Amino acid sequence: MTNKTSAVLLGQVGIREAGPNCKLLIGDINGDGRMELVLVQPDDRQDVRYIPHQVQCVTAYDLEGRLLWQTGEPSEQAGGPGSDYPAQLYDLDGDGKLEVLCVMDGRFRLLDGESGRVKAEYALPDPEAHDCIIIANLSGGERASDIILKDRYRRMWALDSRLQPLWTHEGNPGHFPWVYDLDGDGRDEVMAGYDLLDHRGRKLWSCHDLEDHADCIWIGDVNGDGEPELVIGGSVTVMYDKRGRELWRYDGSIESQHVALGKFRSDLPGLQIAGLDRIVRGDTGETFSTNGKDALFLLDAEGRELWKEDRKTGGWLTIIETLGGWDDGPLDYILAYRRGGGVFPALYDGHMNVVAEFSVDGYAAHADLFGDGREQVILYDREAAYIYASRPRDLTAAVPGQPLPQPKRLYSSTLYPGGEA
Ligand SMILES: [Ca+2]
Ligand SMILES: [Ca+2]
Ligand SMILES: [Ca+2]
Ligand SMILES: [Ca+2]
């Protein structure tokens, strides 16, 4: 039944110069038709429970391993991924070239993607407004050019592309508010934790009977009726229609940590919802844990459990994401990494089969690196980034010299994966 294959290693890029504890962002920062790897190192802050990270160093490499530029100084004492790192790759100024948007030295900076030089910088609306960077279309322009910043847990600031204030919000905005034009008027609504706000920051509706905070938010037409639904993963997994009516809730998990929407099954209508349940918490402070216990699960479009994993290995910190376009088939896969217990990152299909396994452990990112419609997976650790694909190919662009678009998924990078399907 299982058609398990090893993923093909296309190449590897040494990233030691970027320093420890980096997060990988991906984008075509020099416009040559293939993506580059941008390593973002957080500041030295160790306790990020109340005040989040800033960025202290950004290092860019091409896929052949050349170090293109470095802005800031890497530190051996950099903090870890206890909160997001405030950085994204996006063409904020609309000149057709990507910038690195980041908060460094208490300022919101745009680094020129090709050179790493500071292209523009702005004051923050508040000294703590740097938990993460969200790019939104609040003002109804042709493309998203507004910014949302937040502090760790309470306040949120909506700003235009020059960091001039549009509105503010106080509440529980969750880890990474997701923006989406739910009513089709050309302006994004903002799902901020359990509150849906309109583009002017007015509350439209709230989720009820949910505890603590929303760990992740996904938006997609799950039931196939042509309208988007919202799936919120937190203490339970709940699906709402766009007017805030609860459609179902799945409470068969101990602590639902991540959800990921996709078309994982061809034999079922609509989309399916992959999830990750933290069954037993293990020790903290250990990246690749060998104790504790977690489990992947899959729900159908009506919120019914299709299967749940019964792990025989230790590990409780798994992260899952939806991966489309890995091979020639029409279906999405579940990319699971940071599994612990000696289980390497892998792609799972909608029947819990491993369809591809990666030969190194590490954090993962994925993108269409060459502009040919296929997604590649990059695993990275302290030393190197390893580029994997479903089949061999060289590292050249499909259309050399033509800049690749930057998809919303890649300019909405967060440790708390949300998304759109
Ligand atoms: Ca490029
Ligand atoms: Ca630009
Ligand atoms: Ca709207
Ligand atoms: Ca729908």
Q: For the CA atoms, what is the radius of gyration?
A: 20 Å
What is the average per-residue confidence, as pLDDT, rounded to a whole number? 94
Structural category is mainly beta
Strand sequence of the main sheet, in spatial order? Answer: 1-30-29-28-27
Total of DSSP H or I helical runs spanning 4+ residues: 0
Low-confidence stretches: none
Strand content bin: 35-45%
Name the helicity range: under 10%
Number of strands: 34
Major sheet: size, sense and barrel closure? 5 strands, mixed
Tell me, briefly, the overall form. Answer: globular
Give the distance, in angstroms, between the N- and C-terminal Cα atoms.
27 Å
Bound molecules: calcium ion
What keyword list fits this structure?
41% strand, five-stranded mixed β-sheet, mainly beta, 0% helix, 421 residues, binds calcium ion
Question: What does the model show?
Answer:
The chain has 421 residues and is mainly beta. It has no helices and 34 strands. The protein is 0% helix and 41% strand. Strands 1-30-29-28-27 form a 5-stranded mixed beta sheet, with no helix packed on it. Strand 16 and strand 17 form a beta hairpin. The site of one calcium ion (CA) has 6 residues, from loops.
